[in-house]
Amino acid sequence: MRNIPAAPDHDIELSGGALALDFANTVGGTHVSPTHDHLRSYGDIVRFAGLAGGLDASTAKRLVHRAEREPARAAAVYELGISLRESIWGVFSALASGEVPGDEDLELIGDAAASGAARSRLVYDRDGFGWSFASDGDELERPLWEVARSAVDLLTSGERDRVKECASATCEWVFLDRSKNHSRRWCDMSDCGNRAKARRFHAKKQAARA
């Protein structure tokens, strides 16, 4: 079991632009020295998936109830979820830096996505074609399958090259830069961006006084 960082003092933020990137961003600070963690239990993973659009409310409720009946299994899936989060961050952080992603990270993401694909079926409705899990497919790993599928979809799409990592030295969040001139530098302008502006302003004042 890992040492879980402190509880956050704010709710989950969704600024990554994709389910997988938002999942990677559920830890604050850096991944080596996190300041807080939104995912402190299996229930938190389910809650994240619901907030981020990876699960509907009824499925999320059923998964939470199943986790209560199978606490040991839920704990194991939670640990797998944390490993998946680190692999997703590792892959997209590497791509954002122009580096080659690690094979182990790609394997973990691929395995999770393949497990989900094996338990889903192709369906058609008024919104078009898509993948759907069987009505009895409430395995505890389901939120992770959705996240892994999002990661694979992004890796195999043309938007892969738009993934960036926050320019802040104290933040490693990854995000899709969909700005017109690809100039976005911060995960959130109201957070890391404003802090950077404040530091630059302070530095200029100090230089002027000198």
Describe this structure in words.
This protein has 7 helices and 6 strands; from the N terminus they run H-E-E-H-H-H-H-E-E-H-E-E-H. A two-stranded antiparallel sheet has the order 1-2. Strands 3-4 form a two-stranded antiparallel ribbon. Helix 4 (71-96) packs across helix 5. It is 51% helix and 12% strand. It has one domain: Jann2411-like fold (Orthogonal Bundle). It is mainly α and 210 residues long.
The CATH superfamily bears the name Jann2411-like domain
Helix/strand/pairing category: mainly alpha
From the N-terminal CA to the C-terminal CA, the straight-line distance is 51 Å
CATH-derived architecture: Orthogonal Bundle
- Envelope shape: globular
Overall structural domain count:
1
**Residue runs with pLDDT of under 50 for 5 or more positions:** 193-208
Element-level helix/strand string: HEEHHHHEEHEEH
Tally of contiguous helical segments: 7
Radius of gyration: 19 Å
CATH topology: Jann2411-like fold
Q: Level of helix content?
A: 40-55%
Task: List the strand order in the largest sheet.
Answer: 1-2
Please summarize the sheet with the most strands: 2 strands, antiparallel
